[in-house]
Amino acid sequence: MSDVVSQRRPRDRKQQIVAAAARQFERAGFHDVAVADIAAEVGVSASAIYRHFSGKSGLLAAAAEQEVAFLERAYGAAGDLPCLLDDAAGLLLRADRPGSVWQGGQVFLDPARAAELGQRHRAALEPLRRAVLAQAPDTSDADADVLTWAVHAVLGTGRAFERARVDRDRARRLMADAAAAVAGLGRLVPPGAAAAQPGTPAGGLRPASRREAALAAAVRLFAERGFHAVGMDDIGAAAGISGPTLYHHFPRKSALLAHVTTRCLDAMHFDLAGILSATGDPAEALDRALGSLVRINVAQGDALAALFSEVVHVPQEERAPIRRMQQDYVDEWAALLAACRPELTRSDTHALVRSTQTVMNRMRLRLPLAEADQRAALVRIGRAVLGTPSADRRR
Q1: For the segment 282-307, what is each residue's pLDDT rounded down to a tens digit?
Q2: Is 209 in a helix, a strand, or coil?
Q3: By the 8 A CB rule, do 155 and 175 touch?
């Protein structure tokens, strides 16, 4: 008699597949993940995945829906703002939370499906918006929208706390406190402030250099379409450069992306070096560093966004020095924050710095204001996440 025991599929196999897909899409991007990669992580064959999903697009839609459903759960509990933030922070820091794929993946979804999930995503944030308004009933609709998105951005930076290896209970308190500080900012949109349409080019002069024209075109196209949807011919056409000439400057598309992100980091480090040499006050230096990041973000946000979202497409040998530069920049901020807030541990400071920098990048497109108003709002949000006062309040 045979001792072979039949093995049944786990009841949650479909959920395991979706969770693995979300992790892979978050880590490597939609285009660089194959169904076979997801199957290998789950321990099944690719054909087993096709029994549940039509392909990668179906997996992405399922991962995005799982993320939206998790937000509905995170913000759906009744209670005042402090309780909601504490509960949401605890849930959004759980190790089994869904991967974050909605923001970067929606462009790859069927338009009707993306619209449906977008409506659910906005509805999921509505309880948070009501809690923000309940705390400050006189808040304008425009400010309530901005504050809701800013608080949500803070609560979406769980990876920053994980990377810094902050204890989960400690991370929950830090995240909830930072979110509460942002929620309490009050007016961020000045009355009658001139609105600028997000994503609208500001205009300006075209670079005379062909190389610079190519870089400018690449940054714009990567932001509009995503790295994989843009070809070298597209960049050349947008820059008014022939293909052979473009390849003379950049041998491949990833070289363009690597150069854009490296130059962005060089600018950040250059500014920071000047700040550190100009003052002996860590609080002033940190506030000026925040202002520098905001200025670069507003002026060159598409390039900075590539550092957060597209750098995964740069080959590993070129990506490693970029990541080292990014870590060095975080380390400098963390040292300044530690001097300003000695009650924080080293892990705390690194987590809050990464959280702040991520929130700055995400909130840029949520503030369709004139440049001066946008910069002022971002600086105030950044100070709230860091837990540092403005220069005027320190005097």
Answers
A1: 999 999 999 999 999 888 877 777 76
A2: coil
A3: yes
The more confidently predicted of residues 78 and 212 is 212
Query: Which domains are delineated in the chain?
Result: 13-183 (1.10.357.10), 210-394 (1.10.357.10)
HSE-up (13 A, CA, CB side) for residue 298: 19
Per residue in 185-216, pLDDT tens?
988 988 766 554 444 445 677 888 989 999 88
- Per the listing, tokens 């406190």 go with 177
- Determine the Cα–Cα distance for residues 161 and 171; give it in Å rounded to an integer: 6
Which tokens is 276 given? Answer: 């550190």
Strands (E), the chain: none
Length of the chain: 395
Q: Give the type of residue at 156.
A: G
Fill in the amino acid letter for 44: V
Q: Which long-range contacts (CB under 8 A, 24 or more apart) does 200-209 make?
A: none
Q: Spell out the long-range contacts of 327-334 with Cβ–Cβ below 8 A and sequence spacing 24 or more.
A: 328/269, 329/265, 329/268, 329/269, 329/272, 330/354, 330/357, 332/272, 332/276, 332/289, 333/286, 333/289, 333/357
- What residue has token string 């948070």? 128
Grouping H, G, I as helix, E, B as strand and the rest as coil, residue 13 is helix
* Both structure tokens of 152: 């949500």
Question: Of 298, 297, 279, which is closest to residue 288 (Cα–Cα)?
Answer: 279
| Token pair of 109 as six digits | 């979804």
C-alpha torsion sign, points 388, 338, 290, 103: negative
Nearest to 373 by CA among 225, 203, 188, 224: 188
- The verdict on pTM exceeding 0.85 is yes
Q: Tokens at residue 314, please?
A: 């740069």
Compute CA distances 353 → 17, 123, 327, 331, whole Å.
Answer: 33, 29, 11, 9
